[in-house]
Amino acid sequence: MQNLYYEPSVESLKLRKLQDAVSTVMSVESFTILQGGDQPLVQFSGALIASDQDAAFDKVSARLENLGYTPLLYEKDGQHILQVVPGIQDTRTGKPWVNLVLFILTLLSVLFIGALNEGGNPLANLGDLWIGLPFAGTLLSILTAHELSHYFVGRRYGSPVSLPYFIPLPLSIFGTMGALIVQRGPMRSRKALFDIGIAGPLGGLVLAIPLLIIGLSLSEVQPLPLDQSFFMEGNSLLYFLIKLLIFGQPLPANGLDVFLHPIAFAAWAGLLVTALNLFPIGQFDGGHITYAMWGRKAWTVARIFVMLSFLWGGLLLLQGNNAGGTWIIWGILGSFMGARHPPPLNDLTTLDAKRTALGWLTVLLFLTILVPIPLRIIAP
């Protein structure tokens, strides 16, 4: 008689370990090997055992990470689905010296534009750069507060988020295209997605609104220079109401408008950038928030908003209002970003009541700082 010995394959051993890890939090009804090999991609279907879905996900995530896997948790057709994907998130966050160089270049760019706006000429006299300090200091403070709020909340969740990358643009009206942080891989959960997404706008507004009030207090109401071309900033509801409280009259009106101190203009720009970031599209901050609140329904919201951006921009252009071009550009940017926000790793656990309420308050806040007609050129 001959004894036969079959050595288990690497795939079967790995599959057994994955099953052991998943079974600690899930009652598995079936599984499917989506991709074979030494590192199989496996999908488990069933129901989570634990009532605390966040804790269950954290537990299985830690076990799977030790095996070199990343979990994706979501619901489909009334079942909980847990995909275990080979590989773990890249935790590298970039090289800080790159962030520093870009910040310095952006500082010089914004100082340059701020000086030009105040009648200086840094190209002829380098010392004129300091004239742009009130504008540059205000705008960069708001942008920095916005991005660092994202960064610190992201690090609290263990997300591999980078330091802010500032974008210099010396030929633009603000001297910068703003700043962004980079995250390698999807967010951990809807809660993390919401908290990281909302932190930036709230952090920026904490500075932008007081600085706007200070800047408007330093500004003056004067007749409009109707005999020459000039830029006119648009009103959001919040901006209009703050001007009404400070100056006691709606502006612009009756040939009068407020001529902005550099601090006020930079704070207005900071509010505009915040409103842009709150667009409910793709991976804008607003896209993060809407997906965290509504899941894949947010994809439909994004498509509708992009369509409305094009329609509103086209309507303004047909009326001869050059501000419509800004909305067309935003619509193109939204299309380029894409409507489909990627799901977080844990797409099963929904937001709690407090975060949902804060989300709706942020929607209202977005409507108060949205500028229907941004900067436009007024010709004589």
Topology:
Blueprint: H1 10-22, E1 26-35, E2 41-48, H2 53-66, E3 69-76, E4 79-86, H3 96-117, H4 133-156, E5 165-168, E6 176-180, H5 190-217, E7 220-223, E8 230-232, H6 237-247, E9 256-259, H7 262-277, H8 285-294, H9 297-318, H10 324-337, H11 353-369, E10 376-378
Antiparallel strand pairs: 1-2, 2-4, 3-4, 5-6, 7-9, 8-10
Verbal overview:
This protein has 380 residues and is an alpha+beta fold. The protein has two domains: 10-86, Alpha-Beta Plaits (2-Layer Sandwich); 96-378, no CATH class. Helix content is 50%, strand content 15%. It contains eleven helices and ten strands. The strands form four sheets. A four-stranded antiparallel sheet has the order 1-2-4-3. A two-stranded antiparallel ribbon has the order 5-6. Helix 4 (133-156) packs parallel to helix 7. Mean pLDDT is 90; it is low at 1-8.
N to C succession of SSEs = HEEHEEHHEEHEEHEHHHHHE
Question: How much helicity do the residues have?
Answer: 40-55%
Radius of gyration: 26 Å
Strand line-up of the largest beta sheet: 1-2-4-3
Q: Termini distance? A: 106 Å
Described by the principal axes of the CA atoms, the overall outline is: elongated
> Residue-averaged pLDDT, rounded?
90
The tally of strands reads 10
Low-confidence stretches: 1-8
- Per DSSP, the total helix count is 11
Largest sheet, in brief, is: 4 strands, antiparallel
What distinguishing features does this structure have?
380 residues, alpha+beta, Alpha-Beta Plaits, 2 domains, 4-stranded antiparallel β-sheet, two-stranded antiparallel sheet, 11 helices, 50% helix, disordered N terminus
